[in-house]
Design goal:
Distance between the termini: 37 Å
Strand content: 15-25%
Largest sheet: 6 strands, parallel
CATH class: Alpha Beta
Strand order of the largest sheet: 2-1-3-4-5-6
Shape: globular
Structural class: alpha/beta
Number of strands: 6
CATH superfamily: Response regulator
Helix content: 25-40%
Number of helices: 5
Number of domains: 1
CATH architecture: 3-Layer(aba) Sandwich
Amino acid sequence: MATPLIRVLVVDDFEPFRRFVAKVLQRQPELQIIREVSDGLEAVQKAEEMQPDLVLLDIGLPSLNGIEAAQRIRNVSPKSKILFVSQETSPDVVQGALASGGSGYVLKMDARNELLTAVNAVLGGKRFIGAGVNDFTDPEG
């Protein structure tokens, strides 16, 4: 019996980083990248159209930033889990990302070590905050 595929939408405006994410996700065969997009508006459109299980979302995006995109994705694809992967380290930005509907936050510089752990946590219904996110207190514990 085949493992059900987990459909992933990858949103980042930096193509080499999208390739890196794809390479990391390939380590878990049940994770299937269904689309890669490079801006926030397209992320919302593709989330609505494709209803992914998981959205990996950067914050610094053209046309619509990741936090605004996450809020819209919550409305058009409410079952999609959102994991932010960003270089932004500000506690206020992290708080905003999680408040917008994100279930996790990984710093890009820590993605090599934390991305799969974060993906599995978020898909399992848990919250994940990367180790590199300093001075952040999660209001949900």
